[in-house]
Write a structure and sequence with these properties.
By secondary structure, this protein is mainly alpha-helical. 52% of the residues lie in helices and 4% in strands. It has a two-stranded antiparallel ribbon. Strand 1 and strand 2 form a beta hairpin. The longest helix has 17 residues. It is elongated, with a radius of gyration of 17 Å.
Length: 143
């Protein structure tokens, strides 16, 4: 359901949030290495997230990307919608353009239940909720 770009964005934000406790900035190359993603992809994603106000950046020798406390408290849905758009939780599971309750695709009803559960999860979970298990060594950002 989520694109590679969106998953990478979520991992990058979680990584930055895990560094927020030490008030440390991270560079694009460091983030890309830590989450095992392409530097090019991570660079584009980080700029999108900065433009949306979901993370911060500073330029210069001591610059980098970082996240503040209010950004740690934002729901994951903010990241998902900034990358995927707001239609992600309305789209057909088979990609059909005319799928609806009155004109359903073969998986419409089942997919709607799963899609609604995932949307609820992303609306309820905050960045810090996903960051804490990573910081405590209970969860990981690499596969």
């Amino acid at each position: 359901m989520l694109s590679y770009t969106c998953k990478t964005a979520i991992k990058a934000v979680i990584y930055l949030a895990s560094r927020a406790e030490v008030s440390d900035k991270a560079g694009m190359i460091e983030i890309a290495k830590h989450i095992h993603a392409s530097e090019h992809t991570v660079g584009k994603i980080l700029q999108t997230l900065v433009r949306q106000g979901l993370i911060n950046s500073t330029k210069g020798p001591s610059g980098g990307f970082f996240i503040n406390e209010s950004q740690r408290n934002q729901p994951i849905i903010n990241i998902v919608e900034s990358v995927e758009g707001d239609q992600i939780f309305k789209a057909c599971g088979l990609g059909l353009s005319k799928c609806s309750a009155s004109h359903p695709c073969p998986i419409h009803d089942d997919y709607k239940v799963a899609r609604d559960l995932i949307e609820k999860l992303f609306r309820e979970k905050k960045v810090k909720d996903l960051c804490d298990p990573v910081s405590n060594g209970l969860a990981f950002l690499i596969g």
